[in-house]
Amino acid sequence: MSTERKITSNTQERILEFDLSSELNHGMVVSNLAYAVAEELGLPKEKCYELAIAGMLHDIGKLKLTGYINGQENDPLVIEELKYVRMHSKLGYEELKDQGYSDFVLDSILYHHENYDGSGYPSNKSGDEIPVGARILRVCDVFAALSSDRPYRKAFDMDSVMELMIEEVKNFDMEVFLAFQRVVHK
């Protein structure tokens, strides 16, 4: 399939073709980075593996939002819509909590949008209140999002991605961010 969106008369089919592929690719990038960053931080192999799983599944809650977002994927989200998108980490947690995943995986998914300075969601946790898996996913998720094409913008080049992340470094655990930088600059 080409990177351009295939136009079909069936909107649902078109969105699933494009968005599912995009989300899977995003999940794979986050998963691989999260594993490498966890390893760089010296986490046990089992935790690195669990973080790879969490990276792959971290945005699964967005599937619950497709009914709301369908038809609007080319428009930047307006403020009123953000509250629905911000529900995806909690929706993902709820979807996965009874399916045998560890608390480490579940908490990493639930809190992956928490910012180190306390300005994130869903619980406005800050600093070490945020589980380490979520702190790792946060950095990897931002990198993967900025370095990929989105419906509303092209991917940023590596230098721009790093500049943007440094400008927002207050959102990240510095130890995790430095380990992330070592990984991506290898």
Explain what the structure shows.
By secondary structure, the protein is mainly alpha-helical. The chain has nine helices and no strands. The protein has helices at residues 11-40, 45-57, 66-69, 79-85, 88-96, 103-110, 132-146, 158-167, 174-184. The chain is globular. The model is unreliable at 1-18 (pLDDT under 50).
The number of helical runs is 9
What structural class do you assign from the helix and strand content? Answer: mainly alpha
Share in helix: 55-70%
Order of helices and strands: HHHHHHHHH
Summed over residues and divided by their number, the pLDDT gives a mean of 84
* Strand segment count: 0
Q: What Rg, in angstroms, do the CA atoms define?
A: 16 Å
Distance between the termini: 31 Å
What would you call the shape? globular
Poorly predicted tracts of residues: 1-18
Q: Main β-sheet, in a few words?
A: none
Strand content: under 5%
List keywords for this structure.
186 residues; mainly alpha; 9 helices; 58% helix; globular
